[in-house]
Amino acid sequence: MKEIQAIIQPFKLSAVTDALQVIPGVGGITAMDVRGFGHQRGENGLEKPAHGSVNYTPKVMLVLAVPDAVVAPVLAAIERHAHTGNPGDGKVLVLPVEDALRVRTGERGEGAL
User: Fold this and answer.
1) What global pTM score does this model have?
2) Is 50 contained in some domain?
3) Mind listing the pLDDT tens digit for each residue in 29-87?
4) What's the rounded Cα separation, in Å, for the pair 101 and 111?
5) How many domains does the chain contain in total?
């Protein structure tokens, strides 16, 4: 099992989640409004932050847990639907998941996803 954390542009949320929902094995998605900065330190080319400060830019963070076999199609869908070609398109992290628990039923492992 893997946890996938995708940080994307807010205006790409609908396209990405629509693409992820049709992939068999994607059981659910958590979306959170977040703020951050990358290599550009929040600079968009139009305005410069004050010396020593950083502009945090709004992003959306998607978190989902999936079976190993689903990782490749999930990454492909995120890349295809979140891409604009501009700085700030985001990042995707894939992390190992040791176990999962569905609280309602007590199921463990991939059955809990």
Assistant:
1) 0.86
2) no
3) 999 999 988 876 655 555 555 566 678 899 999 999 999 999 999 999 999 999 999 98
4) 8
5) 1
